[in-house]
């Protein structure tokens, strides 16, 4: 793993095509958690529910799944037992299995969720991280297993892309975490749920590039933000992208969630190296997409994420160029101390340098919280998710580094 970044630096453009997984693997196996109302109605019809009852039964199922967080059919007491039985024969409630759980001394929790194979695929594992903070709790959700984009400082980029997650699997991460945290209250209690709201915010900052899995992410966000169920406000959902320019306006127009851009460099030559998709969508185009982001305002700013890499992108000249680059865009800047991983060639900037950098940004009028590392003892930080097991072999990495640049079909 040691020479991965060097390999990429010396070799061809390391931009790889977007997700092209086998059709069979992408096929959605039905399950209730994550399903839209239309899908639930279809499952009910398939279980023989007469047309005139479908709407009412759909509302009942929706309530059990997303307001009460029910994990099995037995809890759904106002649905007649024979119907529950018929449904359970064809559609499971959910499919995720908890493969591991770690709880940090600072309260951060990390779960490894295993999803069964889709079609001809094999089981996949994704990590979900919960970060409790004063008065709120943020859930970091994954959109893909692995990532095709190979940003040189990101551990996920060294992992083999297995496949896109389905909308159901994305929603199930949220339902699972809320259930595990007791956020639904007692699902069998007659008095209804107590919504503790441990999970108040969602960030799509786990594994994967959400804009290479747009349709599934969009469908999942529609379910989690539905006011009758999980009810997470779209203003509390942030989608982070490495900069898939043609898709950015669609995030605002169709998902209406907050946008975060993984910027990390303010010059094309350096960004080409750190975030190789920049070779396809350079800074000028990315900034234009930000300036015209639907719904952008002082109340709905874009977050620019900037990972602090010692001696690479952390000079005060970089800080000044950053401020210049985003001038006029209602923005926040999130300085992220680099999280090293075994084999990386990068180091985190010194603390004084991060502070001096933040100072320049602050003086220009931008809030620039430095993201405090959380859950370090359980490797729950950005870029460290899902380590070891999906690591690529040396041969695979060399093949990847030499792969021709291929246009993304977005
Ligand atoms: N693919 C999307 C979302 C997932 S990455 C994206 O790139 O935006 C979430 C954030 O973690 C990104 O800003 C990413 O650049 C950052 N990150 C990745 N590896 C990191 C590391 N080792 N240390 C600090 N931040 C990292
Ligand atoms: Fe993929 Fe984001 Fe990591 Fe880049 S930073 S490799 S886009 S997950």
Instruction: Indicate the proportion of strand residues.
Output: 5-15%
CATH architecture of the largest domain: Alpha-Beta Barrel
Cα radius of gyration in angstroms: 22 Å
Main sheet summary: 9 strands, mixed
DSSP helical segment count = 13
Query: What is the tally of beta strands?
Result: 11
The SS-based structural class is alpha/beta
Query: Helix amount, in percent?
Result: 25-40%
The CATH homologous superfamily of the largest domain is termed Aldolase class I
Order of helices and strands: HHHHHEEEEEEHEHEHEHHEHEHH
Shape: elongated
What's the CATH class of the largest domain, please? Answer: Alpha Beta
N-to-C span: 30 Å
Side by side, the strands of the main sheet go 1-2-3-4-7-8-9-10-11
Instruction: Estimate the mean pLDDT confidence.
Output: 83
Bound small molecules, deduplicated: S-adenosyl-L-homocysteine, iron/sulfur cluster
The CATH topology of the largest domain turns out to be TIM Barrel
Regions with pLDDT < 50 over 5+ consecutive residues? 1-25, 190-194, 385-410
Number of domains: 2
Put the structure in a nutshell:
By secondary structure, this protein is of the alpha/beta class.
Task: Draw up the topology in text.
Layout lengths: L3 H7 L12 H4 L10 H10 L4 H17 L13 H10 L6 E7 L5 E7 L8 E10 L2 E5 L3 E2 L17 E2 L2 H14 L20 E4 L9 H11 L12 E5 L3 H11 L2 E5 L5 H7 L8 H9 L10 E7 L7 H10 L5 E7 L13 H13 L30 H9 L8
Parallel strand pairs: 4-7, 7-8, 8-9, 9-10, 10-11
Antiparallel strand pairs: 1-2, 2-3, 3-4, 5-6
Helix pairs in contact: 3-4, 6-7, 7-8, 8-10, 11-12
The structure holds S-adenosyl-L-homocysteine and iron/sulfur cluster (SF4).
The site of iron/sulfur cluster (SF4) has 11 residues, from loops.
